[in-house]
Amino acid sequence: MAAAADVRDMLDLPAEGQPRPHKKQKVVEKRPEGITRELYALLGERAPPIAINENKYKGRPKWMNKLRVRPWSMTPFTNNARSDGLVLNHWQRKHESARPPVPAPAPEGSEMEVDQPKEDGEDAPKPPEQEYAFAKYNIKPRLPKRYTDDEYARLLKSEDWSREETDYLVDLVTEYDIRWVVIADRYDYQPPMDTEPDANAIVSAKQFRTMEQMKARYYFIAATMLSLEHPPSEMSEAEFELHEKMLKFEPDRERDRKELAALQLNRTADEVREEAMLLEELKRITSNEQSFITERRELYSRLEVPISVGNTTMYQSSAGLSQLLQTLLQADKSKKRRSILGDGAIPSPAGQTPTHTGGLGRAETPVTQAANKKGSMASRETQQNVRTLTPAEEARYGVQHHERVTAGVNFRSDRAQRLTQAKSNVQTQKLASALSELEIPVRLFMPTERVCKDFEKLIQSVNLLLDARKVSEKVESEIRVLEAAKAERERKYREANGIPEPEPAHPQVKTEAEDGDASVLNPSAGGAQAQSTIGNSAQDHAHGAEGNHKRSASVLSGTSESNKRQRR
Amino acid sequence: MNPSNPPQAAEYGGDEVSAIVLDPGYATTRAGFAGEDAPKSLIPTYYGKYNADGQEKLIYGDDIFVTPRPGLSIHNPINKDGIVEDWDMAEKVWEHSFTSRLTGTKPGNPFQNGLNDIPSEELPTEMEVESEEKPLSDSPLLMTEPGWNPAKAREKTIEIAMEKWDTPAFYLARTGVLAAFASGKASALVVDIGASNVSITPIHDGMILKRGVQHSPFGGDYISSQINALFKSNSPQPITITPHYLISAKAAVEAGQAPQAKYKTFPADKAPDASYRALLEERTLGEFKECVVQVWPGPTRLSALGPTGVSNEDMARTSPGRPFEFPDGYNQVFGVERFRVVESLFDAKAAIPDPESSFAPPTPAQTIPELIKASLAGVDVDIRPHLLANVVVTGGSSLLYGFTDRLNHELMQMFPGPRVRVTAPGNTSERRFGSWIGGSILASLGTFHQMWISKKEYEEHGPNIVEKRCK
């Protein structure tokens, strides 16, 4: 430490340039239990490579020791699934149902002492009130009800099956819960021997019933009974299905199937080997086919040119062309990268036209594209199957023909909006004030085709008016300047000639000036009246209004003149 | 998991009612409480009979091996077919199997146990006459039977259980079904290689298919007779087995040398019966089977040519032999012979001829693969593949070294098409007590308790009820 500080000192280095690295933390291993401190110290710093681990019985956690021991008792129980009320005994928690599962912590000692004997006394006579948990598993399949004698005689008679044997079969089916394998195994019908001798002679040649015969007979009975219970029209879906299945049972076919199954089971080793070989071959072929398909797809995707949809107007401008070039270059790059990666999917060169190259062939791509761009497809379709519409129809379907369609989506209302924007701010404001005077909102509420057209016309006429006013103002001011110059000249002339100033000339000029002002303001007022009948007439109206106001203005100026005179 | 909580009934499904499972076999009788993993009581089914002081005395359990009492004869209540013949003795042997270890002795009459002796003058004048204690009055009993047990024997069994032992509930299950349950299968083809019988039992949904049940008497005892035949024709000299009780001292000898032992001799009136000697010889043969005998693992028969063109016998010869020392000190290394003694289980022609044997040589239809084939032919074709995929091997004699491998090969050759899968627990006790373990599982299931035949039902319907209920 000191050495480093000295060196720094000598070399005029700033003291302690950076904080010294921390001293390595010494890993202090915990001394395992069961080894004395002294013995552990002898092991030195390095722990031995063998883990000193004592396998110890963990026992129960400490908190559990505080719990009160919950007693178990041998309790008798009955099983609801039994009819004879057999009482068996099993171990059960005492009071399991009565007490909450976790007993509240209570003063232990006293309770322990009090509890035990009392509980014993109480429990013993208590009958098991709970239903046996396993009784619910005692289930039987639902079988159609048994036939009566009458029903048997009417519907179920069979030449092959005697009544007794049918009964035996149905009993067996019920007993073994329709497990046919077991039923066929246990089937051992003993024909009654005490019938008359000739009948006995016929039956005594005891016939062996196959499972198919049994099934056919039973299904016939069950289906008949089922349809007696509910006619097929009233059956539930499941019942009907079952009924159909049972009616359609074909014992012969089933027998053939079993024979085939037996043949399949008893194949010789050679046959099995041959089959395995064939399967192997098939597997090889299919796997080869897979690789063949992937190779071919790779080839296709290399050859693939994206099928363009939509119009090509966007590529007709130079900007559009350069964009296309850009995207093509990009696609080329990524294609190279993809093919290195071995990916089948290649992005389409034209960014906007998605080309589907997934797991499908080339022929399918247009379809998926159409699905992607449904709108354009629809418009194309209408163009393709050309059908001239009458003007009325056109109006009805809202079909329009545009000479020039700009790319992208644009709104009619936007166009109307754009009209209200003039080149200069002042002009725009004037337009806006004119519109507000007409009580037309700047943004149209209902920009339908017709409204927009009318709005366009209105704006046009407003613009025209504004222009007219501008011109008239200009002319007015020119007149005024010239008049002033003329008056000056006359005054000079008169001063020079000593002629007194003529009085009434001044107000005349003033009136005209006022008139001009009014005419600036008034057309808008006239416009307001013309709002309902917007059109060319609006201009006439405005002119008419102007005329009116001119007169009123001159009247007004007349009064002001008299006022002036009175003041004087 | 908190050990103080009982397991959820839904995930455990057990409900133990302290039932006793009794699995009587030809060689041993197994008994224990349901829910345990091995029978607590395992005794030989053989019993001993001798005369002492003019009285006939009987001994049961392992005691029969111990003392060569004069005139002691050994008997078995069960015949070679696995069916009980001597019902009185069968009842006593079975009763011994559970009273000796399981139920224990009931607390006797306190007047008679010696602790409460009262002076004779105070003896009460009238003594209560206690009704006879019956050994099983508070335990349901599950018993097993072979699949071919006749109805009469079944009725007799329930009669004993109900009337002699007073069990509150009884059930009779087939060994095959239980062995299938022990390996967790409801449908299986159980191959049970017992002492007296080899049986093939097809099981569907927990029920045996009677038409498929096949059995032959070529089990463990037959293998013993084959070993005896081998010993008689042994090459340096014929080997005779001298049981331990006849030998007082022996000296170590070289392999194949004549034994040097001092023999005990019994005078004719003190000597035990020949059956006693046969029993003890059988014990030695059992050891021999465990240590030496080996099943040729296949895939082809021992007599056939192997895949490399070398005959299997030659191949077997190259494998190192296994030594065995007999009780008299004679010892020998057994080479290819040890394969031959069991080959006849799979290949009838390979049986070692022995005219003195009580076993007729097996017919080709009695080998295990043929029995399996016949068994499958007896069941519906639809379940055959399923059965072949669930072949359960059980029984003590199936523990012969290499047995399951060979069985697997034989079945694969016989049925190359369907998938063959042989299930055999590796644990020795699970294989020996397969049907007992299945019974232990069954009788401790909550859902099983509805199937017991209760005493009330028995009294109502008579012993015939067992035919209706234990299907």
UniProtKB/TrEMBL annotation, chain A:
The keyword Oxidoreductase does not apply. Residues 379-388, 529-539 have a biased composition (Polar residues). This is SWR1-complex protein 4. Component of the SWR1 complex which mediates the ATP-dependent exchange of histone H2A for the H2A variant HZT1 leading to transcriptional regulation of selected genes by chromatin remodeling. Component of the NuA4 histone acetyltransferase complex which is involved in transcriptional activation of selected genes principally by acetylation of nucleosomal histone H4 and H2A. The NuA4 complex is also involved in DNA repair. Residues 1-11, 115-128, 540-549 have a biased composition (Basic and acidic residues). GO terms for cellular component: NuA4 histone acetyltransferase complex; Swr1 complex. It is found in: Nucleus. Residues 255-289 form a coiled coil. The lineage of its organism: Eukaryota, Fungi, Dikarya, Ascomycota, Pezizomycotina.
TrEMBL record, chain B:
It is found in: Nucleus. InterPro entries: Actin, Actin_CS, ATPase_NBD. SMART domains: ACTIN. SUPFAM superfamilies: Actin-like ATPase domain. It comes from the Eukaryota. This is Actin-related protein 4. It comes from Penicillium antarcticum. GO terms for biological process: chromatin organization; DNA repair. Gene3D superfamilies: 3.30.420.40, Actin, Chain A, domain 4. Keywords: Activator, Chromatin regulator, DNA damage, DNA repair, Nucleus, Transcription, Transcription regulation. It holds the Pfam family Actin. Its main location: nucleus. Belongs to the actin family. ARP4 subfamily. GO terms for cellular component: nucleus. Component of the NuA4 histone acetyltransferase complex, of the INO80 chromatin remodeling complex, and of the SWR1 chromatin remodeling complex. Chromatin interaction component of the NuA4 histone acetyltransferase complex which is involved in transcriptional activation of selected genes principally by acetylation of nucleosomal histone H4 and H2A. The NuA4 complex is also involved in DNA repair. Is required for NuA4 complex integrity. Component of the SWR1 complex which mediates the ATP-dependent exchange of histone H2A for the H2A variant HZT1 leading to transcriptional regulation of selected genes by chromatin remodeling. Component of the INO80 complex which remodels chromatin by shifting nucleosomes and is involved in DNA repair.
